[in-house]
Amino acid sequence: MNQILLALQAEQSELKNTAAAIKYCYEKIIFNQENRVTYTKYLQYILEEMTPIEFFNTFKQLRAFSYGCNTWRWLDINESIVKSLPEANSTILWCWLVCHPNGYVREYALQKMIGEASENRLLFLLVTLNDHVKTLREVASQELEKNFSQTSEETLIFSFPLIKHLKKLEHKENQFIYERLTSFLVDSPKLLFKAQDNQDFNIARYAFEWSFALVGEQRKQALRNGLKSTDRIILIWTFRELQKEAHWESDYLKGLLNHPHMIIRKLSCEWCYNNREKEERMLPKLLDRTIAIKALALDYVRKQFPTFDCHAYYLQHLIETPVSALQGLAILQDIRDRERMLPRIHSAQKKVRMSVITWASCLPLDEQLILYMDCLADSSREVRTKAVDQLSKHYSLNIKERLIPLFKTKRELYFQLNVLKILNGESRKDYFFDLILLYVDAADQRVAEDIERRLMEWWLNWNQRFFLQFNLIDKVNLTYLLNKHHEVYSKEVEEVLLKVIQAK
Fold it and tell me: Which of 142, 157, 356, 496 could pair with 195 as two cysteines, CB 3.0-4.6 Å apart?
């Protein structure tokens, strides 16, 4: 969070965002005339700590007009007030007033701002290009044409997302300036290459997008930089740009298939899958560390190399690359691997346990269920989720009869919570009774709270309860449970029970 905002919040707790902090500073400067120098500095510090998107969002919040809300007297600022301000004010004071809802204030502040030499004015000129007042758009356009090239690199780089935003707008000034600024940036490759390393992903993405318009060695350098990025979008754009290169397949494809980033390897494999036949470079992808790529390669090999024994291939690499090989065997789901796979369910590696539980689908259903139930208390959330999904998929009375006793005896947090998730698949009436009964055996307050939440959701879900009928025997049983466990049941549980018992 903006450090100046935090400091101002310590002074005034009602400040919820940066726009409110700016309004507060103006109230202090203009109306209270209190510590004017300090609060003017705050306006500058706030801008320096912003990202481009934060700046744009703050501009929109300041620009918004409301008849019912005038926080920190922001809307009380008018033409006569700004004209009465001292001439020797800091430029930043005029900059933020360019975002004011009052058109006269914006116009006056804009003239004052452009009369001062300031790096900040570029940002405010760019957002003024979308002003509904044509005169202000024209002034901003003229100033940008005259001074854009003289702006520092840091400010230019910061303005990338603001420049890109101009392309979405309809005013003709926006399109004209956008084309001029884009042309300037494409003619400044050093600036684009510097911006590619920016920590703000929006700045980096637009820097790459414009740098792909370069030619010759500079374009190749942009492509090389793109392949080094860690941003998913930049990597996808780079891959698409590489496909436009002459001889891209012979020059790049081999390296792309072995690229350290998953998205590039996946895109390369997908291209081979759709465009190449008998591509032997897809065979090593059977051992790719990403399961999705491994599955794609397996499908490709089965189609293009029907005589290739994938099962034997994975067995050959079981010692060299055990995790990848086991993941491949899991996809194949060959029951011949029973003795090889089942003991590994106790492996210390999560990926190995996940491979076993994925492979288990080839076992007889009864054996599957035993394995899934054992995994409900696994230390890995992924393994537990997979077990819950499988038990929910195969849910039956048989599963319920096995889970209920285990719920009462195991008394482990994750196990009990997962049992509750699985029981969600049964009939709504049985579900209600089971929740009431299991509440007594909750091993942890979190389990009890989860049951309370589910009971309340059950009661509020009128559409599913509408056709349920609780007969006299049901209500007698519920009354018995309420009397027996009234010391254990929480207030929430008792309320739902009484509603059911008293319902006609």
Answer: 157
